[in-house]
């Protein structure tokens, strides 16, 4: 599917909210128009249930029993299990637009999504949106629910934040943009408190950001920022990279998945006021420990001087990507 809405429809089909044992089918005794048998029962027995109908309790057992053919796999989210149980106990709540009101977390991973369409606005209670490992290159913020608190766009092709920052969700607390195509300094201006007043966690890992002082000047406006991931960017190769960030962002608690302790902050105290120590260059030493599949020169006898014979030469090219 090319859009998030199309991927969500596939997601609903996967859940089978309208199929047995869920939904308003004739098998569900709790449906509003379910037929009730008025035939008298022997003493001590309750109301008769027609053979084609099941009680909600029996249908729930089919969903919860891990040996049942209708059970969800163990890795499914709590929300998926909740939606299926609601589809048994109160299936009318998930009919039509009702299902959009019930979804608070939407995770669509590796489904070939290219467009974040305006159909997302139907999710009026959505708080978490994870669209990682797709083919998204641009996000229009006007298509994002204002209730979002978590937005994850890792492993996509996002190279421009202008559309995302036009009307960003005001309550967003986590923004994940790792493994994309961001490069500064044109994108760094979108990472300020003017766009993200409540941001607590930011993942910019494995992009192409190079201007450490410029990026820090923007990030320093995010007063609520506590978690930052920048590893994998060229700027992370700068020798004073970690120390400069630790001293420049005093409220930061975790940098590149490593906790910032008090002694480390004291160690780098004052480094932020010495920008001359930041060099926009780095030296990388690569050591090759072992190479397989190459011919052993000692296995070949050297030709005598003046002897005629074939001469075989080998050349190799080693490429590094940063």
From TrEMBL:
Region (Disordered), start-end ranges: 31-51
InterPro entries tied to this protein: Leu-rich_rpt, Leu-rich_rpt_4, Leu-rich_rpt_typical-subtyp, LRR_dom_sf
Record carries keyword Nucleotide-binding: no
Keywords from the UniProt entry: Leucine-rich repeat, Repeat
Highest taxon of the lineage: Eukaryota
Pfam family for this entry, one: LRR_4
Gene Ontology CC: one annotated term: cytoplasm
Protein known as: LRC43 protein
Taxon lineage: Eukaryota, Metazoa, Chordata, Craniata, Vertebrata
